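Page 37, continued from 36.
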């Protein structure tokens, strides 16, 4: 996403995918009730990274030339990326890896002969 050269430098900074995606991820932090600030910070960082990587790729794939539509897609990608990362993280925290590993081993199951 590039703006015309006569654009003001502030608008160029604001339209950068990292700023737009980080804004989307920061707004979606309110959707995480009960999360610690460490979890919120890691979710925000992951949402921003997903927006920076996947947002411009989506804009390029869809051949979008409008800076406003591009910013909206990148912003939305930041929101979705944060919620997606938080869901995956919560799912991983609920898995009992030790019990799962013991169930896979031949000698780990109790009662079987």
């Amino acid at each position: 996403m590039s703006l015309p050269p006569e654009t003001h430098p502030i608008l160029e900074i604001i339209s950068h995918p990292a700023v737009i995606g980080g804004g989307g991820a920061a707004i979606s932090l309110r959707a995480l009730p009960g999360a610690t600030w460490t979890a919120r910070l890691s979710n925000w960082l992951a949402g921003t990274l997903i927006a920076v990587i996947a947002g411009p790729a989506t804009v390029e794939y869809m051949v979008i030339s409008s800076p406003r539509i591009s910013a909206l897609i990148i912003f939305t990608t930041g929101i979705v990326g944060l919620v997606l990362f938080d869901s995956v993280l919560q799912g991983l925290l609920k898995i009992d890896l030790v019990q799962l590993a013991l169930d896979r081993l031949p000698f780990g199951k109790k009662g079987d002969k």
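The CA atoms of residues 18 and 94 lie 31 Å apart. Flag for discussion at group meeting. The chain has a mean pLDDT of 79.
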